[in-house]
Amino acid sequence: MLVLAFDTATDVATSALVADGLVLGERVGTARGLLDDVHALLASAGTTQDDIDALVVGTGPGSFTSTRIGLAFARGLALALDVPGAGVSTLHALAAARADVVPLVDARRGEVFAEGPRAVSPDDLELPEGTVCIGSGALRYRATLERAGCVVPADDDAVHLPHARLHAGLAVAFGPIDAIEPLYVRAPDAEARRT
What we know:
Blueprint: E1 2-7, E2 13-19, E3 22-29, H1 34-45, E4 54-58, H2 64-81, E5 85-88, H3 90-95, E6 101-103, E7 105-106, E8 112-114, E9 118-120, E10 132-134, H4 136-140, H5 142-147, H6 164-170, H7 189-194
Parallel strand pairs: 1-4, 4-5, 6-10
Antiparallel strand pairs: 1-2, 2-3, 7-8, 8-9
């Protein structure tokens, strides 16, 4: 089964082409460059869009707009190719990168998205000393987390990226793409300002 997986929920978008568990290629870019990344993945693997059997999309939580880009891309591609899909939480994919880590995604507004999923101030996280924190939230609030006794790997450590190959490995059931719901956790910034 040839699976195209991607996650656009954070500032860094990842995509991967996986055939029966074997990673054929992976790209790191931005949500706006996702289409180009997919074309490059297919070309480098010697495949075409018609060879894709299923899609896996990151459902967030993360940036509202970036998450919507990924879901809209998945819906459009699934419709055009008539393939099923699966959604995987960005937090779950991050956690799959390494054992015994706590994934945190930058939620802006002085908060991180953590398991639950929930939005919480990094000061309010109750984590045991020595906890390894990863993800964009861990990078942004490194000083706060380290003061609390947590460990944050180096900024350039790939463990901070929600690798699409991990999404592909976590997908358990494929179905209609329209049934995949984003994990927003809270209202978008524009909505919050309007109320």
